[in-house]
Amino acid sequence: MAAEVGQPAPGFTLKSSKMEDVSLEEQRGKNVLLLFVPFAFTPT
């Protein structure tokens, strides 16, 4: 599924820095910043 500009993000669940599950649905109505750091701390 491709994301479209101006449309709500699709639902998903990720692990927090504390390895706890966090779903986008749980954050509804809050300001959310998603930071994706692929291959963090590698020369890639």
Order of helices and strands: EE
User: Which overall shape is indicated by the principal axes computed on the Cα atoms?
Assistant: extended
End-to-end span in angstroms? 26 Å
Main beta-sheet annotation = 2 strands, antiparallel
Task: Provide a descriptive summary of the structure in words.
The protein has 44 residues and is mostly beta strands. Helices cover 0% and strands 14% of the residues. It has no helices and two strands. Strands 1-2 form a two-stranded antiparallel ribbon. The protein is extended and about 35 Å long. The chain starts with 12 loop residues before the first strand and ends in a 21-residue tail after the last strand.
Features:
extended, mainly beta, 44 residues, two-stranded antiparallel sheet, single chain
Compose a concise summary of this entry.
0% of the residues lie in helices and 14% in strands. It has 44 residues and is mostly beta strands.
What's the topology here?
Elements lengths: L12 E3 L5 E3 L21
Antiparallel strand pairs: 1-2
